[in-house]
Amino acid sequence: MLLLENIRETQAFLEEKGMVKPEFGLILGSGLGELAEEIENAIILDYADIPHWGQSHVVGHAGKLVYGDLSGRKVLALQGRFHFYEGNPMETVTFPVRVMKALGCHSVVVTNAAGGINYGPGTLMLINDHINFTGTNPLIGANLDEFGPRFPDMSNAYTKDYQEVAHHVAKDLGIDLKEGVYLGCSGPTYETPAEIRAFKTLGADAVGMSTVPEVIIAAHSGLKVLGISAITNHAAGFQEELNHEEVVEVTQKIKGNFKGLIKAILAVL
Ligand code: HPA
Prior knowledge:
The protein is α/β, with parallel strands linked by helices. 32% of the residues lie in helices and 26% in strands. The protein has a 5-stranded mixed β-barrel, surrounded by 4 helices. Helix 1 packs across helix 2 (90-103), helix 2 (90-103) packs across helix 5 and helix 3 crosses helix 6. Belongs to the PNP/MTAP phosphorylase family. Pathway: Purine metabolism; purine nucleoside salvage.
């Protein structure tokens, strides 16, 4: 199957570049990519140079794959992810997670900037579950049996043990880590106030345009998942207007806590 061949080709390419046996995949969302700059003994590749890899065009996304040591762990970090709203097929959006699994990662840390439904700007929210509101599913199509089952269980997509560790670590650092459900839309529009009222009723605490596809693929292949949202704004209807500049600006303010938290969590996972 073509997808499988592509995964193997990219895996072989990255291994040949020295990106061998990473333990943790890190997917760094809007404005959060700076964490990758702290990776030691780094091997860095431009997305453009990696076979079968997508391209990242959003402001605040660097488009680099960084391998190396962070908090004593071997990590493979995506500085910028691929969004569905850019016109990427879901296969491209989730391809890096497939490759992380193929390279030997046992876990992924997924991060994003999100609108707060029950939390305000500046909050770090541990994702304990999600609602897939993208209108599709990245596993539609022939199943990759080598990776996981046709009908994967999503009951424990976000690893419980990791959530406990995250709370302990946050407490030690004096970070007020909240917890909740992330609802993923396709974007690129922000939501309408009516949609946000509906999502609140559905049980969502935060809303965004990413993460859900990657976590579905991770869960399918048995990767453990830790998810963290940086809440950058009140979701539509709870504040005057929404814009990307504000998202970038608030992310700048919380990235210090964000980086500290992820590094400290990685040290104990
Ligand atoms: N909605 C969707 N995605 C987002 C938001 C939002 O309010 N803020 C940051 N990403």
